[in-house]
Structures are given as structure tokens and as C-alpha cells.
Amino acid sequence: MNRFFTTLHLLLLSVSAASAFDAPGFVSTIFGSNQVFQHSEPLTIFGWALSPSVSVSVTLTAADGKKSTTTTNSSETAYYGAYYRWDATLPPSPPSFSEYSLTISSETTSQTAEMTNLLFGDVFFCSGQSNMQFSVEGMLGKDDEIAAADDYGGIRMFGVGQPAGQLSGPQQTLPTVALPWTVVNSKTIVTDPGNGDFDQFSAVCYMSGRHIFTDILKSSTPVGLISSNWGGTPVEAWMPEDQLKGQCDGGKARDDKLNLDASSGDDWNPNADHVLYDNMITPFEKLVVKAAIWYQGETNVGYWNYDCFQSLMVESWRKMAGWGDMAFTFVQLAAYDCGGSQALPDFRGVQLKAVDITPNSAMITAADLGDVGSPDGDIHPRNKTEVGRRLSLAIDKLVYNKDLDSAHMGPVVDVDGIRILEDGVSISFRGDTIGGGLHLEEAQVCPNDELCGNAVLSLSGNRGDVVIDDVVVVGNSTIELRKYGVDGSKIVGVSYGWGDFPLLKVFSSYGVPAAPFKAEV
Ligand SMILES: *[C@@H]1O[C@H](CO)[C@@H](O)[C@H](O)[C@H]1NC(C)=O
Ligand SMILES: *[C@@H]1O[C@H](CO)[C@@H](O)[C@H](O)[C@H]1NC(C)=O
Ligand SMILES: *[C@@H]1O[C@H](CO)[C@@H](O)[C@H](O)[C@H]1NC(C)=O
């Protein structure tokens, strides 16, 4: 095991429940100076007063001095025995790099808070397991990215802390904050708050946001990034309890070892059902986000119905007040040595199916981005720059330029477009997924044949399988394999990239590879 999982293991053994919680503040800790709020949407600020039914005033002041104030009353119901929630909603503000400030006060209880250097832009929520947690410091190409970060003060980041114990049920306040809202620069993107491995800001989240900011928004709109993740955790930890009552069962997918009762006993286990949803998602309920970015699944490899879990999770997140119809983008698992069984390729196939059952979603593949030399283990490939770039293309299509073609996801095979030729096989891709046309790339070098086996294209015939990497592009949307040389064998199936460590060769004009696929012919 690599050092990250070892640390996590120790963490599991050593913590006790319900320790190290921050008391609910006068203003929720999801807010703070340097924050980017979602532009053109009502802005809800909330917190807790020390008495019931007291008046709380919230004033937003623009750089030109223009003010907007709203007054609300704290509730009559106590939260944690002594705190009374208040919510105040201000009207929408346009995108802005000029700094706003917020003043929040209760005359009755003399509580006040002040936040400065606030911007309005687009807000993204990043979540998942260790490949999302993986820090900027560990990624390939970090030196250039870190140096360039001094130009990106329009990007602001917030890191959710990993609680040392759980509170039962969906929380309104974050148990702990790792990184309060912080302006991106070359120091802050590699600041280590000191809670363990992969603890600096998420590389995938930052690189997605950086590409959105520079390539799509052309630095015209601020970007806010929220990172809430935990290595080694299954999807069930990120879903609400009521969605785990059998909707996705009916098969042998779930490993009962994971199905721990979150509320029993003192032992805090971040792998338990719904605990991370309750402690690291719901505290953001009223914060408006534009899109979510999800990189998770390694822990769920083997689930034939992961698509069901993931789509229910998205549905539950979208039910939160500020999340509405947010776009949802996710990463198809990268190449790593998963033991060479069919489990990892099959799981990638299930991830691909999830796109079809989740409206307003997109998947990008990382299946070609393997990295056997990664010091954090091959399960943690370091090319997060490219993962972020591909995610930003998906977000461009879902959020900013809906009429773009779908080539952002990489070419998608047309299953009715696979034909057996006299001396080969011809495979067509959907015309809306190729951009300006398909091309081939020598994506990677295979680290060893056992890992790559059926990596490129394999034809199954009644006399066994043949593996072929001799592919040509014909026209804009078709690839052909010629002289496959299966003597007298009748070809019954085609699979592309169907291995732990696929070598993907077929790319759209955006430089995004076709995700692995398998089809009968
Ligand atoms: C707050 O409470 C006061 C006194 O009970 C009441 O007059 C006022 O209408 C309330 N304001 C809001 C915004 O509910
Ligand atoms: C990451 O992957 C992309 C696509 O394969 C490649 O062009 C790029 O050079 C890689 N980045 C690094 C730093 O290796
Ligand atoms: C390929 O696509 C380009 C640009 O869309 C188009 O002009 C060209 O005619 C296409 N070629 C073929 C062979 O379909």
C-alpha cells in the first residue's frame, strides 16, 4: 500500500467520534473574505445567533459604495442546544472583479462580522476520493503551473476539512475547514494546512478551474473552487441515507463490509454510508454552484450498478437549494494495475452508461493517463493537468456553449456503425462527437504487455481473440482495421481499450480520446 492509504488507515484507528468540531459561528464557515459568490443568482448568507428571534442585518457594499441591505430574524428553534439559525437573501449581482464587502450584525446580541475582497463569478464544487484529493504539488508540470498561479488572483479556493469524528444526520455547518477562502497565488496553491497527505489544494479541482478561467472565460469572470474529498471512500458515503435504502441493490454489487451503520457506536468511519454527504456536502445546501466535478470510483470497482448510485447521488445534490440543475462532470477512471481482471474495464463501461441516465452530465476519460512511475502508486497518476483540461472542455459544452458539439467527451462509437469488411473491420463514431475529425495519437508507451494486453483494439472471434493496434482513420469519423488475419474466424465482437491500462489512440480534434468501448457485431 502506498503511504496515503497507510496514513488513512492509521487515522481510522486513532480518532474518536465527535471531537474537533468547530462550534457554529455567527456566520457559517463556508463564507469568508476572498470568496467568489455565484454571479447573477440570489445570494443567501446564513449563520447562527445566540438568541432566538433576534434581528440580523446583512449589507453588501460594492466597490463604488453602493449598498444593498436585508434584515432577517433568527429562528426560534435551537441548533446544538444554543444556536439559532438565520438566513438572509440578497439580490443577484453581475460578474465582477471589483471588490465587494459584507457586513453582518445583530444589534440585539452585539455580534458582528465583516468580510472583504469578495468577487462575483462562477462557482464549482469538486468532490471524490484520492485522485480528487491529490495535490497540486504532486502533479506533473507543477513548476510551470505554480509559477503561473501568481497571475490567477481571480481564482479563489476553499478546502473542506476532513472531520475527526462524525455528527449524525445532514449537517448545516461544516465540522471543520481545511482552507478558508483564499486567493490563488504561487504560494497558496501549495500551502499545506497540515492534516496529512494530499492535503494541499486539489490538483484536479485547481486545473479544471484554471483552464475554465484562462481558456473558456478568457480571464473575464472570477472563478470560485470548493474542494470536498476523502481518499479511499465509496460513493455511498457521499449519498443521503434515504437513497441507500435498496434503490440500487438487486444485485451483488454492494460489499456489505462497507455498509456500516453511521450512527452506531463511537467509531468514526468515513467509508460508512452517507456520513460524508451529511458532514461535507449538506453544509453547502444554500450556496449556489454552477457545476460539480466528481472523480471517484476506485473504491467501487466491481459494482455493476455504479451508474445507479452515481445518478442518485447527483439527483440528491441537485435537490439542495443552491445546486438546482447544476451541470455534473466526472472522470472515467485512469489506467492502473487493477489485477488484470475484467473489473476495471467493466467499471469504466458502467461509468460510460451513467452519462445516459444523468441529465446535464458529461464524462471525460482518464483511461489513457496511466503513470506506473507515480511515487504515490500507479492508482494515482500525476497528469492532473490534462484531466483538468478535459473537464474544462466538458464544462464549456454543458455550461457556457451548449451548442458546441459533443467532441468534448471524446469520440463516441456508433454501435450500429461497426461493419465487418472483406479484410477487416470498420468502426464509425457519432458525427457530433468528433469535432473537426478523428485522428490517431501515439498516446502512451505500454509499461508491460501484461498490463496492456487487450489494450488497443481486440476482435473476438470464434477461434479466440486477436489484438490489433494497426488502425487507420478513413474520412472524418471512421476507423478501419485491415488484414486482421484471423484465419477463418467469424468476428463476433470488438473491444477498444478494454484493459486495466489501455493505450487509447483515437482522438477528437480537441485532443480528447474516445473512451473504451465494447460491442458485439
Ligand atoms: C422580526 O421580528 C420582529 C419582531 O418580532 C417582527 O416585527 C418582524 O416583522 C420580523 N422580521 C422578519 C423579517 O421576519
Ligand atoms: C499529460 O497528457 C497529455 C495528453 O496525453 C500530454 O499532452 C501532456 O504532455 C502530459 N503532461 C505531462 C506534464 O506529461
Ligand atoms: C471532414 O470534415 C470537414 C470539416 O467538417 C469537412 O469539410 C469535410 O468535408 C469532411 N470530410 C469527409 C471525408 O467527410
TrEMBL record:
Lineage: Eukaryota, Sar, Stramenopiles, Ochrophyta, Bolidophyceae
Ranges in coiled-coil conformation: none
Keyword Cytoplasm belongs to the record: no
Keywords for this protein: Hydrolase, Signal
Gene3D superfamilies associated with the record: SGNH hydrolase (3.40.50.1110)
One of the protein's GO biological processes: carbohydrate metabolic process
Keyword Oxidoreductase annotated: no
InterPro entries per record: SASA (IPR005181), SGNH_hydro_sf (IPR036514), SIAE (IPR039329)
GO molecular function, one term: sialate O-acetylesterase activity
The Sialate O-acetylesterase domain, residue ranges: 122-371
Species for this entry: Triparma laevis f. longispina
Designated name of the protein: Sialate O-acetylesterase domain-containing protein
Annotated signal sequence range: 1-20
